[in-house]
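Minimal example, chain plus N-carbamoyl-L-aspartate.
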Amino acid sequence: MATTEWNRRHILSLEDFTLAEYDIILRTAASFREVLTRRTRKVPTLQGRLITNMFFEPSTRTRSSFELAAKRLSADVLNFAPGTSSLTKGETILDTAKTYLAMGTDMMVVRHKQAGVPQAIAREMERLGTHVGVLNAGDGLHAHPSQALLDLFTICQYFDPDSPRTELLKGKKIAIVGDIVHSRVARSNLWSLMASGAEVHLAAPPTLIPKQFLEAFRSNSGSLSIHWQIEPALDNADIVMTLRLQKERMGEHLLPSLREYHQGFGITRDRLALCQSHVRIMHPGPVNRGVELSSEVMDDERISLVQAQVTSGLAVRMALLYLMGGGKGP
Ligand code: NCD
């Protein structure tokens, strides 16, 4: 597999990604998806390389997904856990990163509740003249590129399993419903979906939807609309992405109650009747059952892509580590 078109050492945000780069990721992920169906679900691509997972914020699926992706590529993996680390003794984040650098780390996967931490580590790695690649696994409210890329792969794969590519999104109506103001997933998804030419419709109560989005994410390709009611967003939608209500980030009372939110914006079977008959539902997880989605919709594998997103996540993260590492293909 040629990686000549790929020349990023770090993946920090999708803001400046080109369509060609999205398509390389989709193609590479599709070939790793095939590897994952083989009897031996492993390739020697990153043998001898060291990948360090630095998650300063809780995570189930993203951290496990990166760990497994690294292992399936035959890399060695270190998992840093802040609660039991020297951070509790006052060590700075950059010093922690330098410690892992001294152990021979080739790539760092970083999540932090503060926006900008992965970027600061990447800058420090450059300043020190190293070749370490940094991947942003979620920084504050800012970005979560690997989630948006696995969402892109999941959607494109749904429309054409044999050849997932950005072109499939042109003119598709994608509704994003939920806590948009606190969502780094929505921000990253907007870059990739808009660049691919999708018609994106955001829906949430006014307290959870920043109007500045209309300006910030204006693009030549896709279109963006904001709704304070769910119906116009769902009307004829091809895909509905739901987002968790991030209670841990809600300083003030932004919502009357979770029950009321569900009544106004929860995805139920009745509401899905507004969408195209082939509509599929997504959620990055973790889900507040019965809030963003009714349990019935979430568990219905005929309409829910939630498990497919997790499966796609592994192939996409293998692709990202592979591309950043400039290794040999599957
Ligand atoms: C998301 C995150 O951490 O930003 N989850 C994830 O990575 N799967 C969304 C969320 O926490 O709601």
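The chain has a mean pLDDT of 94. The pocket of N-carbamoyl-L-aspartate is lined by residues 61-62, 138, 144, 147, 184-185, 244, 246, 284-285 (CB under 6 Å).
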